[in-house]
Amino acid sequence: MSEKGFRVEEATVRQIHEAMKRGETSCRAITEEYIRRIEAYDRKGPSLHAVILVNPRALEEADELDRIFREKGPSGPLHGIPVLLKDNVETGDMVTTSGSLSLEHYLPDDDAFITKKLREAGALIIAKANMHEFAVWGESVSSILGQVINPYDLTRTPGGSSGGTGAGMAANFAAVGIGTDTINSIRSPSSACSCVGIRPTIGLVSRDGISPYSLDQDTAGPICRTVEDAVRVLDVIAGYDPADPETAWAVGNAPESYMDYLCPDGLKGKRIGVLRSLFGDKPEHEDVNAAMKRSLDAMKEGGAELVEVSEPIDTNYLASKVSVHLHTLKDDLEGYLKSLGDKCEYHTVEALIDSGKIHPGIVENMKTAAGLSKDSDEYRSRTLKRLALKTQVMKLMADLKLDALVYPHQKRLAVPVGESQVERNGVLGSATGFPSIAVPAGFSRPTESAPEGVPIGLEILGRPWSEGILISMAYAFEQRTGFRKPPFSTPPLS
Going from the N-terminus, what domains does the chain have, and what CATH number goes with each? Predict the structure, then answer.
């Protein structure tokens, strides 16, 4: 508990700022409380392993932000707000490991573009989050810190690859969080950890200073506990960056602020396509399907018109035959590693494999990627398939006059630790590059290991640059349902 009884648990940016203005808390007080929670629940207690590194200068930086606040007022829209930053996003004052022992000593020369934007907005980077090593899969296990644990069910993964951010945000280790997404990696932990995750249109957010998996599909975005907080973060990190040419597409396509789309009636009059091919029909899908029914009913009650969509989109096919993530990994990651020069000992995928300093769980994928390249007929074929998929989705939405498509982010629950997450639907957004938002859609039936149930996420996908429309729907859905709740394993500290 921070000053004068202010509790950080589930506190929003708006609530923190209002409490600061009233003198009920300070950046130092809330930073101390988040660090106390990390110490209690990440290193001890349930041992979530969500945080690789706590900023050693966090309290010093908090004091400086408090001084500025006293003397001049807030320096930006995220003044004094602690951020949990995925550890493939560079910080010039802290090591950036990408979850790998091969980079355990890598100290960047500068901040990533989005890190600079966060700091310019007054935010404080409180900690670097654990992740699936080099972001190459979806269960959030790394050689630097091991397996991240889902705080709602300590036997399960938190999704991934941004699982440290997802678990940490669920457990209230920071006010807001940042993840990256190549296939599912923002929306998967958001779905599995009862959070909100926004995967923006490719080009809305710069990737400069972020360890790449696939520059064809990579993006960064917020993972937060509320839609409003996710939008506040998106406003800060979006924008043109000359160092990432893709962001030139955002010029003229992004509004001045996405906050204008936070409308409680955002579902009213919207035509939303229910993409049935992305639903399961087996016993293991029952909990997710039940949550989807409740969610779809809420959307209809909020004024949306639901349209049944029978388009036979197969996400297994998209992941295995259309997505280019493994075909780009070698070229894109090696380009990044070589750019680090003497600060990185290993400059090739083969060298990473031979080093013994990567987790055994990613070796097979790394070996596969080592034999692939952008300079191949298969890559060119997949690129053409991605273009065809984009047209297919755009035509589908045009023919049915849809504002968005909805479906469960995962057909089944987050898997137990040691298993590989299957039946994830987020590849539709990553293969097209279209924007999508994952929002809490309730929980499964309670079990002994998950006394509150396992979180389930609804995904909303739209046309390129339609983030505003998606935000309006997600916000209205959140306000109507209130499905988010904190995990049993990380209660308020006395």
Answer: 3-481 (3.90.1300.10)
Share of the chain above pLDDT 90, in %: 98
Point out the residues that are catalytic: 86, 161, 185
pTM above 0.90, yes or no: yes
pLDDT of 315 higher than 80:
yes
Peptide linkage before 339 cis (omega within 30 of 0): no
Q: Residue 338: in which H helix or E strand, if any?
A: helix 325-339
Q: Tell me, what amino acid is at 187?
A: R
Tokens of 330: 């070698």
Where does the pLDDT of residue 5 fall: very low under 50, low under 70, confident under 90, or very high at 90 and above? confident
Q: Taking the chain, what is the end-to-end CA distance rounded to the nearest angstrom?
A: 7
CA distance 59 to 56: 8
Which bin fits 248, alpha (ψ -120 to 50), beta or left (φ > 0)? alpha
Residue 271 burial (10 A CB sphere; 0-12, 13-18, 19+): middle
Res. 3: pLDDT tops 70 = no
pLDDT interval class at 246 (50, 70, 90): very high
Extract long-range pairs of 37-45: CB within 8 Å, 24+ residues apart: 37/8, 37/171, 37/172, 37/173, 37/490, 37/493, 38/127, 38/168, 38/173, 40/490, 40/493, 41/151, 41/171, 41/173, 41/489, 41/490, 42/168, 42/171, 42/173, 45/489, 45/490
As a whole number of angstroms, the distance between CA 147 and CA 449 comes to: 17
Nearby residues of 60 by Cβ (< 8 Å), 6 or more positions away: none
